Every structure is written in structure tokens, then in C-alpha cells.
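User: My collaborator sent over this chain with a note saying "see what the structure looks like." That's all I know about it. Can you take a look?
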Amino acid sequence: MKLTPLDIQQHQFEKKKGKFYDAAEVDSFLETARVDYEEVLRIVESQKEQIRNLEAQLAEMHANERVLKDAIVSTQKITEEIKINAQKEADIMLAEARLDAERLVDNARKEIDRLQDDITELKRQRIKAETEIRAVLHAHDQLLEATSDRMKEKDTESSKVRVFAKKA
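Assistant: Without extra context I'll predict from the sequence alone. Here is the result:
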């Protein structure tokens, strides 16, 4: 039988022979109270142990929670640093690409200027060569005309000489 605090408080022992309680009934009641009390103490002790285990688990969970929070904060900081570094790296790469593009354009402009200078020089040389060839052709033409005129004169003289030679 399980005793409640109310059962213990309201329990009335039967009196035997006047003022005395029945010893067997008192002993039986005390034995029941002892057994119930021992069981309650075992339960209390078991629950205290369970509470200690749960408190240890709770403390471990709080420690893990702190570690996780720190890890999350650290991860967020690292993520931000990675983003910032990636942006800086992208900015640097973009600036380098722009510089390379400017160098390429500048080199292309210099090459264009050089090629235009070469074209101008080649045109000047062509004009000079044409002028020199015309001068040579003109000189040869005059030489041919002069030679042709002399040849005509010699032919005329030669024909006169033949005419004289036939009459004699």
C-alpha cells in the first residue's frame, strides 16, 4: 500500500487497553511508511542523478552552442573577408586588363603611325623613282632623237656620196 502525506497525517491507531496503541498495528504502519519512504528516497536519488546528467548535457549543449555561435560569427567574418578580397582581386584584374588594353591600343597606334610613315616614305620613293625613270626616259628619248637626226644626216650625206661615186 502506498502512503500519502495525508494518510500519514490522518492515520488513527486503535487504542488497546486504555491509553496504549496496538503495537502490531503501529509496527505494520511504520514498516509500510519505511518501505514507501525508501522507495521515495530511491526515486528522489534517481531523479537527482537524472537531473545531474541533464544539467551536464545542458551545460555541454550551452558550450556547444557557444562554440557554434563563435564558429558562425567566425565564418561570417571569413566570408566577408573572402568577398572583400575577391572584390579587390576582381578590381585589380580589371585594372590590369584596362592597362593591358591601353598598352595594346597604344602599341597599335604606334604601329599605325609607323606604317603611315613607311607608306609616306614609299610614296616619296615611288615619286622619286618615277621622276628618275622619266628623266632617264627623257634623256634616252633625246639621245634617240639626236642619234636619229645624226643618222638621217649621215644617210643624207651617204646618199650624196653614192651619187658622186656613180658619176665618176
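A starting point for your reply to your collaborator: The longest strand covers residues 15-16.
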